[in-house]
TrEMBL record:
GO terms for molecular function: mannonate dehydratase activity. Pfam families: MR_MLE_C, MR_MLE_N. This is Mannonate dehydratase. Coiled coil: none annotated. It comes from Conyzicola nivalis. PROSITE patterns: MR_MLE_1 (PS00908). It comes from the Bacteria. It is an enzyme of class 4 (lyase). Signal peptide: none annotated.
Amino acid sequence: MKIIAADVIVTSPDRNFVTLKLTTDDGLTGLGDATLNGRELSVVAYLREHVVPLLIGIDAHRIEDTWQFLYRSAYWRRGPVTMAAIAAVDVALWDIKAKAAGMPLYQLLGGASRTGLLAYGHASGKSNEELFDSVREHQEQGYRAIRVQTGVPGLKSIYGIASNATFEANTGVRYDHEPAQRGARPAEEDWDTRSYLRHVPTVFEAVRNEFGPELPLLHDGHHRMTPIQAAKLGKSLEPYDLFWLEDVTPAENPEALRLVRQHTTTPLAIGEIFNTVWDYQQIIREQLIDYVRSAVTHTGGITHLKKILDYASQYQIKSGMHGPTDISPVGMAAAMHLGLAIHNFGIQEYMRHGDKTNAVFQQSFTWTDGMLHPGDKPGIGVDLDVDEAGRYPYETAYLPYNRLADGTVHDW
Ligand code: GCO
Ligand code: MG
């Protein structure tokens, strides 16, 4: 079964997506997600210029061999662009193999280990009132686990807060569902860690008082704290029993989590901007985290993320795969198949894609009582309507960035 065509499809229905479509000589097709938010075209070039020519003629069944070939033959290993490109090839090959077998992909990964995947959504608000409404809205949509992000007094616009009126007016989508803004330059947001550290525990106290002790609550620090600040936050949130506290310190230095871990029993999650097992090696071995946040899309695909998660399982560390809107429906489907099959599944992030996106990508997954299931169509269960995709050409878009009050650039 040979690859005879490899097409890189760029489309921007509600946001930019990059998809690789492989076709075999017996007429099967497979899809892989290669979307790298705000840097999409770098992966397009990597694929079109350097990978597509190597794929024509290869045996589509040889997934592990193709992975090792693309990873090792480049010499320049790792990094988000390379690993997103390899991921797209890997997932497209798994899609093809599962279609050839006539089975949903999770069957090839060992079969279902559970009936569905617990998923969490993003509630947010500038004020507690707005936040409570957002939590309730998510509960009405079926969510049984909820991430809570709050505005901070004195800060105009910060990561993860939905009520950004300018953004919504410009884009027609809620900010928490889509932080990347179309336009020639990144939007500037503001930040003050001391105000944040003072305010966040009061919000979690209010949320627990309003919604009770049962509801699993999560929070994302988005890499903005120093280790000692992160330790303080973890400690001050302990009474509110978080499911996890995410990305507390910058990801370049994972061993910073040692200090955080020494000070708090709040469970820690990290990894959405990691891209290989090497980023995780030390923090898994030293048991510095509780959840692996990588997406299939940014971590070399199913083949490589499964290895990371198998390693993590030896230390009772679970999956918490990244699932914001910048993971395309193809990347989400791959995550669902992997999550259904592995033993150490923890939770799946799930934000809804917009209607235009859902018209480009026809999907087989189901959402029932807060649980996702990838469906039982052969392959990963996603089709791409090329004509519909063609209606939405690429649009320049950037993620925002932060400045402190004195103008210093800060982690966003
Ligand atoms: C999350 C993430 C996202 C990222 C986004 C960047 O936890 O879902 O932090 O909100 O900011 O994916 O592209
Ligand atoms: Mg995050």
